[in-house]
Amino acid sequence: MPKKVSEPQEDKVPTEEAKEPRSILLLDFAGLDEVVPSTPAYQAIKRRFPTSLLTLLTRQTNVPFLSGDPTFYEVVGVSDNSKGGNPPFTETLRTIMAFRRRGYEMAVDLNGTPFNAFLLHMAKVPRRFGNISDRGSRYLTDNLEVATHSHNPLLRRLSLLEKIGCTTRRRKPVIHPSPGDERYIDDLLLATGLGKKDRFMVIHPALEWNNAFPPHQMIKVIDWVAGEKPGLAVFLSGSENNRLYVEEVAHGCAVRPSVFYLGLSRFAAFVKRCDLFIGDEGIHTILAAAVETRVVGLYLQENSIRSDTAIPPMNSEILIDILKNEFSRVESSTSPKRRYYESEEFRRMRKENNLFLHTSP
After folding, report:
1. I need a labelling partner for 320 at 20 to 30 A (CA). Which of 47, 106, 163, 283 fits?
2. CATH number, position 109
3. For 29, phi and psi rounded to 5 degrees?
4. Structural domain boundaries, residue 154
5. Which stretches of the chain are assigned E, i.e. beta strand?
6. What's phi and psi for 242, nearest 5 deg?
């Protein structure tokens, strides 16, 4: 009796009934400011494929923030490109050729670039998902059409992942500082006289605050906190581009706050310990939110560095009123992790003073 020949089946996106891949390779060479907000996307993949081992290939500078995430079986880093853009081709291709021997059954390009699609093709992964232009689409087995959210990396990634059955209800980024960084911060705080149960807040001034929030205004805010909340220490967090501002503020305060200049991985462990963080819309505020610290983000509508429009000065009374509101909510709340919403009063204040106010969690 002749053997029955089955009709070739169309290659389909994995479904709930499909066999779960043993291992999945993810490529994400975005910067830290995109990778940290995208952690819910990684978690969505793990929930969709709970028994699969996930390996993430990313920039080396991202590794300390993701290696402690239980979502991943392994996080592998390649050198950053000093000129920006894709990582060094030779080093990355060498890593991919080593991955070929592991036999990944599925791969996802989270950046949507021909460079990534070619790497997945060289890795000989049988199922390669991504969203890419015609230039590199031939390297993917599934070139998925997704909605574009150029302003929001998380939404862009989730739109892609929804096409392969990954969904998420939680869109808040979460990272896990390394135990080594946490021990370093414990020792650092101990040297300043603070124990593990002592409370403190951190202010990280942005570079554009030199004009928008002059040092004498920040000095008034810190002195007010010292008088109203004597049990709450205030620390200033600085970087090379705001060193002069930070030092001027520190020297001008009645009770001089401690100043720390920390790398980003140690900074994440630092703000994980604090009660409240104040910063701008940059990576330091993103990291503070990702370690589930309460955040007041002062988002200026015009940035003097990127625009010719000058930022009108803010005054200390505005930030003091914000802090009064924040402290009163915390003290009256039984859950310190509750989400705070902007009141009509603060909405009016930020409009009048060219300010975006964001509080979390």
Report:
1. 283
2. 3.40.50.2000
3. -100, 20
4. 23-162
5. 23-28, 53-59, 74-78, 106-109, 127-130, 142-143, 199-203, 232-238, 258-261, 276-279, 294-300, 355-360
6. -125, 20
**CB distance 298 to 279 below 8 Å:** yes
27 with 109: CB under 8 angstroms?
yes
| CA nearest neighbour of 319 among 243, 231, 220, 172 | 220
DSSP 57-110: EEEGGGHHHHTT-TT-SEEEEEPPPTTSSSPPHHHHHHHHHHHHTT--SEEEES
Same domain, 137 and 187: no
Tokens of 146: 């997704």
Span 289-322, pLDDT tens digits:
889 888 887 765 544 444 444 445 567 887 888 7
| Residue given tokens 């896990």 in the structure block | 176
183 and 127 assigned to the same domain: no
Q: Is 143 within 8 Å of 132 (Cβ atoms)?
A: yes
Nearest to 38, CA basis, from 120, 199, 156: 156
pLDDT digits (tens, 9 = 90+) for 25-60: 999 999 888 888 888 889 889 989 999 999 999 999
How many other C-beta atoms are found inside a 10 Å radius of the C-beta of residue 69?
A: 17
**Angle at CA of residue 206, ends 202 and 211, nearest 5°:** 125
Query: In this structure, are 150 and 232 located in the same domain?
Result: no
Could you give the dihedral angle defined by the CA atoms of residues 131, 64, 44 and 57, in that order, rounded to the nearest 10 degrees? 40
Give CA–CA dist 337/112, Å, rounded.
35
Rounded to whole angstroms, how far apart are CA atoms 86 and 31?
11
Overall number of domains in the chain: 2
Q: Are residues 68 and 194 in the same domain?
A: no
Query: pTM for the whole thing?
Result: 0.77
Strands 142-143 and 127-130: parallel
Other residues' Cβ atoms within 10 Å of the Cβ of residue 126: 12
Could you tell me if 187 and 143 lie in one domain?
no
